[in-house]
Amino acid sequence: MPFVKPISGHTKLGAAQRYLEREGRALARDFLNIDAPMAGIGEDGLPEHRDYDWSSIMDETREKLGNDSPFKGRKARTYKHYVFSPDPRDSISLSELRSVTMSWARENFGDYEVAVVYHDDNEHRIPHAHVVVNNTNLATGRRLQDPDPRALKRSAQRIAREHSLSFYEDKPRDPETGVIPDSEAYARRNAHIVERDRIARGEYSWVGDIRARVDVAKGIAKSPEDFQQALREMGVNVRESASRKGDWVYSLAGTPSRQVTGSKLGASYTRREVTGWLRSPARRAPGPVTVRNVREVAAGAIEVKVLRELVALSEAVSVVSRGGFRSLSAMDSAASRSTSTGCTTPPRLPGGRVRSPSSSTVRTTRR
């Protein structure tokens, strides 16, 4: 069973990053809501990242929103640091740990900037993860409230079970009746988790549908105008929000009543954030050959009937965009490294694109 140990931080994050990455001790790094540059795809099919000053990004986010200042006379808690340790009896590999850890981070801190650094510097060289969560909610701008430690641990145990690892049962029960709370009430409080589980089971979620199509458009667009055009090609209308400055409203063309603001999809889906991302000099936009081929895939996204396939497509395009692949051969090379590790034949996506079920590796099949 995984063990989760929380630690509170009250300073800038530079010292924490230096400690976690000093002397080359970091085995790998993963990021959530931080556009860290990729160096490519590793032999295990997972992303490798270049050296990146993620601590300064987190510090800047807090400072801009005033979340570095003392709160009610107390020194600000600037971040939470969780040590995520697997059960030694599971003999977990680094790639398995990365998958489990990122599933846990997305579920519990989906609206926060998260950096994960992996070590094996303990007595028995067992890989474990250091999960650093910035104190600012990107959707609301508010400070991170201390999550229920027991809820975080329950989440870790359930995800471990889903990955066929050892776990223990710890279901919440009513203190008076001993009965597990009504699942409908749980669903209302945890809508983002319910949506994710629907997608995992192959059920349809129109919010997840829109989010996936927006992800594809972000990955292939050359400009904010091109982004909106790509969305129209995939059956999504977009307009400025009348009530939220700097935000967009997305809707499905066939059913305009199904509409959602960018901030509801996540902080990185607002007009301000998308436009800033597309115009950012740090963005490694894919080369013209890659853009043309990926756009052919995107144009067929409207024909996708299974939401899981559309989500897989959006993840694939994200890797192309963030990885900065300049040619099809570079993409093929990354994919071959994944398949050479013994992965089974990956499912085919619309437009001839292929994705490994165990990673975000993508490949274009020439016809």
Characterization of this structure:
Residues 68-165 form the MobA/VirD2-like nuclease domain. Residues 330-367 are annotated as: Disordered. This protein has helices at 14-21, 54-64, 94-109, 149-162, 183-189, 191-200, 206-220, 224-233, 262-265, 271-279, 288-299, 307-323, 328-339; strands at residues 3-9, 28-32, 38-41, 47-49, 79-85, 114-119, 128-134, 236-240, 248-252, 259-261, 353-355, 362-364. By secondary structure, the protein is an alpha+beta fold. It folds into two domains: 3-173, BirA Bifunctional Protein, domain 2 (2-Layer Sandwich); 206-364, no CATH class. The strands form four sheets. The chain has a five-stranded antiparallel beta sheet. Helix 7 packs antiparallel against helix 11. The longest helix is centred in the C-terminal third of the chain and has 17 residues, at 307-323. The chain is globular, with a radius of gyration of 21 Å. The relative contact order is 0.12. Mean pLDDT is 75; it is low at 178-194, 198-202 and 337-367.
